[in-house]
Write a structure and sequence with these properties.
The protein starts with 7 loop residues before the first strand and ends in a 6-residue tail after the last helix. With 372 residues, the chain is of the alpha/beta class. An 8-stranded mixed beta sheet has the order 5-2-1-6-7-8-11-12, with helices on both faces. Strands 4-3-10-9 form a 4-stranded mixed beta sheet. It folds into 2 domains: 8-198, Rossmann fold; 200-362, N-(1-d-carboxylethyl)-l-norvaline Dehydrogenase, domain 2, CATH 1.10.1040.10. The protein is built from 17 helices and 12 strands. Helix 8 crosses helix 14 and helix 10 (234-253) crosses helix 14 (303-317).
Length: 372
């Protein structure tokens, strides 16, 4: 399968990230479609025929003309060579279901980001819903922008990450995907395979536990404290270290050398410390970041079922103790009165429960399904 440089992009989702991506792509010269399930949310963009983008870092900014603004999923998919899914990972399965009838040979779908096993879930759901076309599903390890929506047709980019790992399913298509988008996104780099991008999901470690272990403070102050500084006490940091060790061990059980949280902090921020508590407090960028205002936040309802559950589920499948992760999943489920294990991306829901490590590895690298 070959792919020319992509010129036509469809962005699915018009939230903080989707608006920023659509406007940025348009300003980079791409033909862009923007889809949102609720048309009222994009009606002003359609009326203005674009989005005004500001850049805090002094990068590209201005009016990004959007070629197509629609809530018709078929129309949106028909427009695209590359489909950029910029929605919470809890919506990935539903997006896969509604796009499955409309996907065409040669199209690329990229999840921004996939969280944990997002591409595996998306590929399974489109297959289960009758999609037999030759579509490549890929996922980014993290979202490329720090951005927000400033109004109905306005967006702001605070920062663009310099290097973001991206992997296709199967990984033999990594180069094809990277080549297709390199003119607009040279920041994306080879992420090896979707197991690597999944197991290096640091949000799974930092977000749910740090939120849940500070639940009382969040409810009392409505988030009026420094999330990573005041919230990461020595005991909280020890819990994060346990979760991180479990993640790295699960990764090792499936043949992946995942970065530790300390290694990630050094790579991402050039921050070091004797332990996680010291390293987090040595990161200047964490100072001033406030906590979530409520416990009804994506750090729980997205990161528990779509990030933490699949890592823990892989651990249980391949014989790794994940008692720390199970405790955080249980606390989140109790607080939200929701069974996040049942709702999450377990190996059973993904059809991986009978797979050996070699079968799983061959699937993500070559696309070969040996058993179901």
């Amino acid at each position: 399968m070959t792919m020319k440089k992509a010129e036509r992009f469809t962005v699915l989702g018009a939230g903080h990230g989707g608006k920023a991506m659509a406007a940025h792509l348009a300003l980079l010269g791409a033909d862009v479609a923007l889809w949102n399930r609720t048309f009222d949310h994009i009606s002003v963009v359609k009326k203005r025929k674009g989005i005004e983008l500001e850049s805090v870092e002094g990068g590209i900014h201005g009016f990004g003309a959007i070629d197509l603004v629609t809530s018709d999923i078929k129309e949106a998919i028909d427009h695209a060579q590359v489909i950029m899914v910029v929605l919470p990972s809890s919506a990935h399965a539903d997006i896969a279901r509604i796009t499955a009838p409309h996907l065409k040979d040669g199209q690329i779908v990229i999840l921004h980001p996939g969280r944990t096993l997002g591409a595996v879930e998306f590929a399974k759901v489109i297959r289960d819903n009758g999609c037999t076309t030759d579509v490549t599903v890929a996922e980014a390890e993290t979202f490329i922008y720090a951005s927000r929506s400033d109004g109905p047709a306005q967006a702001r980019i605070f920062r663009i990450k310099e290097a973001v790992p991206l992997a296709a399913l199967p990984s033999t298509r990594n180069e094809m995907v990277l080549q297709a988008i390199e003119d607009v996104y040279p920041q994306y780099i080879d992420g090896v395979d979707v197991l690597n991008t999944s197991m290096n999901n640091m949000g799974a470690i930092f977000h749910p536990a740090l939120t849940l272990l500070n639940a009382g403070w969040i409810e009392h102050t409505h988030g009026d404290y420094q999330f990573y500084i005041d919230g990461v006490t020595p005991s909280v940091a020890r819990m994060l270290e346990v979760l991180d060790r479990e993640r790295v061990t699960v990764a090792s059980s499936i043949g992946i050398r995942a970065r530790t949280a300390l290694e990630w902090l050094q790579l991402a921020y050039d921050t070091t410390g004797e332990d996680l508590h010291e390293a987090i407090h040595n990161q200047p960028g964490y100072y001033g970041i406030k906590a979530p205002m409520t416990l009804n936040h994506r750090y729980i309802f997205e990161d528990v079922p779509m990030s933490l559950v699949p890592i823990a589920s892989l651990g249980k499948r391949y014989g790794v103790s994940v008692r720390g992760m199970e405790s955080i999943i249980r606390i989140g489920s109790i607080i939200h009165r929701t069974d996040y294990w049942r709702r999450g991306r377990t190996v059973e829901r993904l059809g991986l429960d009978n797979w050996s490590v070699s079968e799983l590895t061959r699937f993500v690298r070559e696309g070969v399904i040996e058993s179901m």
